[in-house]
Amino acid sequence: MSSFYRNLSLWLIIAIIMVFLFNIFNQPKPKGVEIPYSEFISLVEKGEVEEVIIQGDKIDGFLTNKKRFHTVAPRDDGLINLLKEAQVKINVKPQEETPWYVTLLISWFPMLLLVGVWIFFMRQMQVGGGKALSFGRSRAKMLTGQQIKITFKDVAGVEEAKEEVSEIIEFLRDPKKFTRLGGRIPKGVLLVGPPGTGKTLLAKAIAGEAGVPFFSISGSDFVEMFVGVGAARVRDLFTQAKRHAPCIIFIDEIDAVGRHRGAGLGGGHDEREQTLNQLLVEMDGFESNEGVIVIAATNRPDVLDPALLRPGRFDRQVVVPAPDVKGREEILKVHVKKVPLAEDVNISLIARGTPGFSGADLENLVNEAALLAARKGKEKVSMEEFEEAKDRVLMGRERKSMIISEEEKRITAYHEAGHALVAKLLPGTDPLHKVTIIPRGQALGLTQQLPLDERHTYPKDYLIKRLMILLGGRAAEELVLNQITTGAGNDIERATELARKMVCEWGMSETLGPVSFGKRDEHIFLGKELAHHKDYSETTAVQIDNEIRRLVTDCYEKTKRLLEENINTLHQLAKALLERETLDAKAIDEIMRETGATPQAA
Hints:
By secondary structure, the protein is α/β, with parallel strands linked by helices. It folds into 3 domains: about 140-320, 3-Layer(aba) Sandwich (Rossmann fold); about 325-395, Helicase, Ruva Protein, domain 3, CATH 1.10.8.60; about 405-595, CATH 1.20.58.760. Helix content is about 50%, strand content about 10%. The protein is built from 20 helices and 14 strands. The protein is elongated. Its main location: membrane. In the central section; belongs to the AAA ATPase family. Its cofactor is Zn(2+). This is ATP-dependent zinc metalloprotease FtsH.
């Protein structure tokens, strides 16, 4: 409220000044022509003046031809007599005196204006704008334990991470329980995980559970264009934290200031490195920070400086991974609390159908479903909206307005039918969920598979079948239409990349054996390598290329043979797609039963 009243008073002063200026510079000016006093006397003597209005030394009047004039008269005692003799109508008005405050304002206005502008800009720089007078002040926002309403009940899907950080909460509540046996609580905890998995939410929950002050700041808030500002802000942040100990400092996206020192092509000792050096000293230097626990979050732990990760600074790295099926179900239960659900909604089915989704993705899914239901005028969100929202998130929005020729539709139908049929015929593949030829995103059609459970390792047989599914669309086009199109471009790219990983990273080539080829590219900003060097000979490179080609072509030939053996089913699937545009798993199973197609033996 103080800033509100300050701004109100400032604008009030500006308004008053503007009113004074308006009154000064917008005084009503007398109309008519201005004539010299000598000419005025001459006109009176000739009898051409009909009426005069005298106000001090100003004379305003009308000629006999009704033309208006005005002039300024000196002290002339005979003027009245002259006017009487000429029978001129005389009117007299009292002289207006300029108020003292107007005179004062006119004389002091330039100086007051300069002082006012100077005060205005100085306040702006202190309170907002560039913060020229408070560069060294920390931008961290402090929240007390009462202000933080988030607890562990609001965090789901990361049970192991919650258990790891619960020890910190116990320490903040009862430090003597740990220190009496000579133990030392970790000074820093680094939360590591992909974007959207809930690292920031977990940090807020830690502060909410512990009920202690919580300083929140982003890594980029330390970095400024002026040298030394970042280090000063780090010092100020820890000074404030010590005054409120025990407390928590949370630094989000710490990789903005914690990158490996000596990185890049330029000088080593830049502003960011000074900030990092100060952070290292504050976390574990000569001065102790008892009761100050630093929690940081990043999705790039590989670029952080080793000195930052050593024990004594960030003692623990808590991994916050993408949730599994059970975790996704728990996260969905948290987000649907405020959403009225229809009776047909199955949370566990939605969780199983969203593999790889992070907590943020699931929150977005629930929000999209609620918006869709509201758009349709429904009172509750049903399973239909959740399925539609899931398809929109996974595959993109339907492009129903896109004009596609009948020939292109037919090509797309056989392409997607090829993917779907290979996926159904091969045993051990992920279950088929949906096939569509409605354009979504940048694709003309899509085939979606949903895994039954989470996979952490992939056997070679599964990857070979994955290659065959990717090549099924291209094989169907060539087999039925006797042509190949650009529609399989992305499939071929993904198949080639998968085959390359099988040969070069996972040692799944019988010819080359269990050997890894090729170092991963080092990033220039890490300051390790400026170029990528092969660790194998040209002869080996040729063998790798041949092996990748052999893997892909072998799978392609197997796929063509599989489709040839079930050509009738392929035609029926394509025909159904052209008629209905979208087929779910039940519809595909029904077509396969009608045509007598059966999956291969495992």
